Amino acid sequence: MKMTIEVDCTPEEARRFMGLPDVSALNDHLVNEMKGRIDANMSMISPDELMKNWMAFGTGAQEHFRKLMEVGMSAATRK
User: Fold this and answer.
1) What's 42's DSSP letter?
2) 35 and 53 inside one domain
3) What is the pLDDT of residues 30-59, one digit of tens each?
């Protein structure tokens, strides 16, 4: 014998019925914190800031980056 039971309820009602905690306030707090951190660090992904960071490491970092690109290009051409 096979039985199918269909329950029509919201996620909040299901959490309450199963005795699970309501973590929506915690989730809202975490989302707002992440938004704040993203907004605070947006300037770091601008091209000007990236170039300043790369230039601060001197020619050693530039040479390493060039070699990395060469290896990537040679691997792409071998395919």
Assistant:
1) G
2) no
3) 999 999 988 887 766 777 777 777 676 666
